[in-house]
Amino acid sequence: MNINGVNHLALVCRDMAQTVKFYTEVLEMPLVKTVALPDGGQHFFFDCGGGSCLAFFWWPETPPAAPGIASVRAFPADSKTAVGSMNHIAFTVDEADLEACLERLQAAGVPALPVVVNHDDSEMGVARTPHPGVFVRSVYFTDPNGIMMELAAFTRDFGPEDVRHEPAGASKPLPEKEGVVA
């Protein structure tokens, strides 16, 4: 099998018109394909660059959102989601554009964290300011459907030293930190 990248990620929206407005006007992703489904629904595709699309389904009758189960309830305080759910989607942007992206989101009234987040390998996983250990800088926000989004800029290439944790699972829980119960 030769995987060449992500073709599209398909999500479900509550209002296609509102979704089209947000993705075309705020995020400036061109609407490139629309499909009328035989059951009365719609399936629309937005170009998110690099040959990949973000797609949305809409149906007249769809189960309501389930924050804290199928989507993030509140980032960063309550960001766990259920097995099989999508936690968030991250789009690649140039690091130099992150502040302008944040300002654009804020000007459009989009719910966003008010800062660019510097992810590093420290115990907290974030730093107040960029430094050589920061590997990605991000802006987090939600779309009109409550879907968690991230604009992300890797700040360096990854190497073998970046893979240093054993995978955990139900039969192999994460080790407890002092004073913290897993």
TrEMBL record:
Upper classification of the organism: Bacteria, Pseudomonadati, Pseudomonadota, Alphaproteobacteria, Caulobacterales
All residue ranges annotated as the VOC domain in the record: 5-154
Protein name: VOC family protein
SUPFAM superfamilies in alphabetical order: Glyoxalase/Bleomycin resistance protein/Dihydroxybiphenyl dioxygenase
Source species: Caulobacter segnis
Pfam families reported for this sequence: Glyoxalase
InterPro entries in the cross-refs: Glyas_Bleomycin-R_OHBP_Dase (IPR029068), Glyas_Fos-R_dOase_dom (IPR004360), GlyoxalaseI/FosfomycinResist (IPR050383), VOC_core (IPR037523)
PROSITE patterns found in the cross-reference section: VOC
Region called Disordered, residue ranges: 162-182
Xref: Gene3D superfamilies: 2,3-Dihydroxybiphenyl 1,2-Dioxygenase, domain 1 (3.10.180.10)
